[in-house]
Amino acid sequence: MTKDPQLDRPAIELTSVIKRYGSTTAVDGISLSVSPKEIFAFLGPNGAGKTTTIKMITGLLRADEGQVLVCGQNMHNNGMVAKRRIAYVPDQPFLYDKLTGREFLCFVARMYDVSEATRDRILDDLTHRFDMRAFLDQMTESYSHGMKQKVVLASAFIHEPDVLVIDEPMVGLDPKTVREVKDLFVEHTARGGCVFMCTHTLEVAEAIADRIGIINKGQLVALGSMAELRDKAHQEHSLEEIFLHLTQEKDGFGDGC
Ligand code: ATP
Asked: Considering only CA atoms, which of 215, 217, 232 is closest in space to residue 31?
């Protein structure tokens, strides 16, 4: 993980970001800052704009308006530098069918100029934690969804990124691996990294996120820790109740964010 000279600088900073697809405004003026050492959960109903936001953070899409910074680097003007600091795990794991899991992980390590010693250290640790030894040397075309997800998650850690951006991190994983992923997130933030995850699994968000953002129809309608979201709700609501209230009814809690 790169040592950041400005430790209080946000890991991710979106300023008035807008993204349109034709006449559809998928992301409508979002401003959001995520700190190093923070696990941030980004929630929202289907079609709310989560994936579009993630694609702008990771540089796969360009914002029509506003600014996206990753570790202080402008994702549009300085994308190569920003992308070295980030790892992205999409909700549909992509692997090359004719490579083994190990070959894929070595390929990713080489792309990021990871030394063989570092690669082998991280790979050994993750092979053990994700129970990958039995299949890592088979071609990935034979893998189940969960096996693919494990290898793709491992590839996100191999270059020790500052910012982990993960779409639905736990879907398809067995309970032991879910526990390992949660532990890895906590260890990553303890080392100064940040995790930005999208999920529909509210229990996961409630259990491990330091802060939660809820997007609805392209706009951020709530932002804060669970305690702050409950405060805004003026009573003890579960995250599920808060989420449904903010995304299904006309009136939110107070002024939302
Ligand atoms: P889900 O939870 O269903 O994955 P999401 O919150 O990730 O949804 P997005 O995929 O960001 O939502 O979509 C936001 C809006 O933008 C939706 O109205 C969607 O139809 C639209 N949209 C997304 N991608 C495109 C595209 N390539 N072309 C046109 N419209 C798009």
From this structure: 215
Whole-prediction pTM value?
0.89
Beta bridge partners of 172: none
Measured from the Cα of 49, ligand 1's closest atom is: 11
Domain annotation covers residue 106: yes
Tally of domains within the chain: 2
The closest residue, in CA terms, to atom 17 on ligand 1 is 47
Which of the listed residues 111, 137, 160 is the one where a domain comes to its end?
A: 160
Give the three-class secondary structure for 245.
helix
Phi, psi of 45 (to 5 degrees): -70, 170
pLDDT digits over 156-178, tens only?
999 999 999 999 878 888 999 99
- For ligand 1, is residue 24 a contact (CB within 6 Å)? yes
| 195 and 11 Cβ atoms separated by less than 8 Å | no
188 in a domain, yes or no? no
79 and 14 part of one domain: yes
| Domain span at 113 | 93-160
